[in-house]
Amino acid sequence: MKKVLILLAMAWLLVSCSANSTNADSSPLDYIDQVNSTDLTAEQGGIASLGGSEEELKKQRGEPKMRMEPDKSTVILEYEDYQYSVIDGKVAGYMIVKPGIPTARQVQVGDAEARIAEMYGKDFFKRNQGDIALIGYVDKNNRKLMELSIIQDKVAAIVVSDLSVFVPSQGK
Q1: Residue 154: which domain range?
Q2: Which secondary-structure segment (H or E) carries 155?
């Protein structure tokens, strides 16, 4: 049960980071001009690309273990290896919360914080989302973001998302 609660809390991390959030914590957009771009093209999360529909994701990955709808515009699809966030009908990002599932540059949950800079470089930003410390890399050319949550100097979760997730939407 505790594991399920942790997974649900981590799934909410991506949702709570959206531009529609009312908390006063910073957004990755606050840092985009302070760091150089990092190529995140190879970060695919087991799918062809971000931006496809829920149906396209299911064609590529099969039926998820769990499907959650935390609000009207968001769907979380949980697979054995990744959790995907579908926002306004499009796959907006994915999350890795289990050890043994590496990023394209071989960083995974459980790795020491120092390994992140070894594999991705020192062009990152640090911010907090509530009590969670985040290290972020921005791919400005592909409008993609990777944030790694750090707990006790270890990678606790990895989130890759489209930067549009953080842009305030009009009329919502």
Answers
A1: 2-17+26-165
A2: strand 154-162
- Distance CA(92)–CA(153), nearest Å, equals 27
Q: Are 76 and 84 in contact (CB under 8 A)?
A: yes
**170 located within any domain:** no
Per residue in 90-111, pLDDT (tens digit) is 999 999 999 999 999 999 999 9
Decide if 118 is inside a domain: yes
Average pLDDT of the residues in 38-63: 95
**Hunting for tokens 């540059």 — which residue is that?**
105
pTM: 0.85
117 Cβ contact partners less than 8 Å away, ≥ 6 residues apart: 124
DSSP-derived letter for residue 168 is P
For residues 163 and 13, what is the distance between their CA atoms, to the nearest angstrom? 15
Is the pLDDT confidence value at 144 over 80?
yes
* DSSP character string of 64-133: -SEEEEEETTEEEEE-SS-EEEEETTEEEEEEE-STT---TTS--TT-BHHHHHHHH-S--EEEEETTEE
Burial class (CB in 10 A: 0-12, 13-18, 19+), 101: middle
Q: Which residues pair with 129 in a beta bridge?
A: 132
